[in-house]
Design goal:
single chain; 5-stranded parallel beta sheet; mainly alpha; 890 residues
Amino acid sequence: MLTGEAGIGKTTLLDAADRLAVGFVRLRARGVESEAALDHVALLELLTPVRGLLDELPGPQADALSAALGWGRDATGGDRFLVAAATLTLLASAAATHPVLVLVDDLQWVDRESAAALLLAARRMRDDPVVFVVTTRSGLATPGPIDGLDVLRLAGLPAPSAARLLHGPIAADVVDRLVEMTQGNPLALVEVADRLTSAQQVGAAPLPDPLPVGARLGAAYEQLLTDLSSSAWCAALLCAADVSGRASVPVEALRRLVTDPGAALDEAEAAGVLVRLDGALRFRHPLLRTSARALATPAERRRAHLELARALPGDAAHAERTWHLAEAADGPDDRLADELVTVAETDRTRRGYASASAALHRAALLTTDPERAAERLAAAAGDAFLAGDLERTRTLARHVLDGSAGSAARGRVLGTLGTLEQYAGSVPRAADLLSAAASEAEGAALVVILTELAITRFQLDDVDGVVECAVRIAGAADPGDLEQRALSAFTRGFARLFAGDPVAGRTLLTEFLAVVEAPRLRDDPRFLPHLCLAVGLLGDALGADVVASAERRLARAREQGAVGLLVPVLSLMAAGRAMLGDHRGAFADAGEAVELGEQLGYVADTAYGEEMLAWQSAARGLHDDARAALQRARELVVRAGTAPFAAHHAITAAFCALSAGDAARAVTLLEERMAADGGIGAGGEPLGVAPTLVEAYLALGRTDDATALAERFATATPPGASPLSLALVARCAALVAVDLEAAVTSYEAALVAHAEAFEAFEEARTRLLYGSALRRAGHRVAARAQLSPALEAFATMDLTAWERAAADELAATGISVRRDRGTAPEALTSQESRVAMLVARGLSNREVAAALFLSPRTVEHHLASVFRKRGFRSRTEVAVAFSSAERPTL
């Protein structure tokens, strides 16, 4: 990325790169300030030369890109992240035969949707023969994060270089003075030097005294514009107000305003203001457009927009015409405001939420009724949040809250701010905002807000707060409305489970699962986070239909590019997959949740994803990775202020320490947890620290402490507890048993309980401990009967550190362990696991790339690493090794 002030030479360097790229596919686009609110304008300019490769894209991506760029009839696509994925895939297709050069000028004025797509591609295509060179003006914000781009900051030219640039009859001392006055800005040097008289060039007359550089350039351009005739000025102003990108529209408008439009255009072009190129009418430099808009009076600007609206052909340009009419309005206009609301509704499915937000904002400004205007501002804030523009969300929300908005608008905007805080800020602050929202909202909006508030109360370990939300939602929800009925059942079931009534809680959550399978809701991704949380809460009570529903909804969310939902969903899915024994999937989901969370600025859900990633890394022997993930999680937990996440963090950190052989660290962590809350985990889990702490005590020789804790664990766990809890109680009893006979009895009881649970890891862990005890007692044959299935289970779950431990124990019984099993394979990374799992399902590299927002070449790189680490020779071997058909998965 080249950055510098206007006129520093960024565009000239792009031109040079364009000339040098012989044999490249060269794609170029330029940001235009007045077009920044029009989604996908820059992307259309950039990708049109490779439109012929559209058929090579996966169907959902091709449909989304076609809809966004107006290449097809379908107007239901255009989701931001799906379009971004399609852009990456299209560039990768173009690079399959020739290297590609992507040049983007004035990134600061590129529309947000185009910028998101291009920046994602730039970050993700490190392994492809694609070069990205973008420019941005210093001092102006870019429309997206530029992490991952190398930045070159351009400074002004020194005097010797300036003299070479000017290469005219200009005296050396005059060049020195010009460099001082312009700070070496190349464009300023050229523009000012061209206006010097002969006497000034040789130093015989004083130089003009222009404004400092930046403002000076604006002044120079303003002079160009003020020198135009009224007709040529009219042409320039129409071009400045036009957003169509087609010369025909401003030319048609010009015909309505001047007697000789051709002469007006010729004059503007001869003056160096406008250029006609490839059917488009553009300014020679973006600053000319800025200067033209700044010079125009409000009346002139309104007249230009009105004539452009009249010049647009037919109904095909309804949205564009509506925008021009809105800009032409000199006061409130309810009819026009209603039209903009219609445009916003269309934009949500075609151009994205940012465009919809802009339309609603303008509609609010044109609305006469203050209450209705506030409601439209609140809706604009909600769309801005969905678009990921958090600062705009806060600004619009502030306008609502600072005005005289009614309770409906205030409730809605407070709910939006609360959800924003829940995802990307402080959970306690989110709870305060959502509480305030709930005091003003009603109807369906209140049900949604109360559901979010209950989740934040859970994150804060506030049982009474969760129950209060459940009571309120029971009275507020309309049972005849499916969405309200579903959220009511979820919140009430969630609350009963959290408050210690598992039977009633599971009944209500089961009702929720049934309601969301109604035809109108079954593919709605908005319910996916609630469904995934229900999966974690129900645990052993899950059925195959719930598993299939979660998979289907996740696939649908990916197709729709609903990336905003994916961070909390993937974090919860990682936990759910781990619970059901699918640790390969858990590792993959946790890694993706963390990556997306970092990009979106999420906090609490990213912390949970980091903890899941730490657990999975430790179980694979990747202890440095685990420690790094835990450190990031700690920092995020502090930022989020989430209480039960702190308990979960301690238990996860202790598991990581024990996996690394640091039993003392595990004991310290868990004893601190017990001192803080009695060892009770999030959601009221009784003595959740016990299973790991008993093992850690025994590793340090603290037998009495281990025995006391195991007994306390048994007492705290009710007879009707889940099969997994009963299995863990029995395992702890076996570990502290006074003799082998008692240990065997408890281990067998644990295995009976495990048989009714899905948790494959804990069952394998029990078998490893059982087999180890039998081996130490000299019962080698009996030990093998436990260690062999433990080894097989750990290998299937890809938990290489535990696989290695089981193999060592099995070898100690005297059995010959195959080399490929006795030495556990090198652990895969999370992204390698993701790629391998999708390949195992039969997806091609291109299809995998589409699913993971990567380029096919990056997928090839990861797949090659999987082949190397695991010794695979074919995709069939990957499919066999990563098949999950024999175990329940999400």
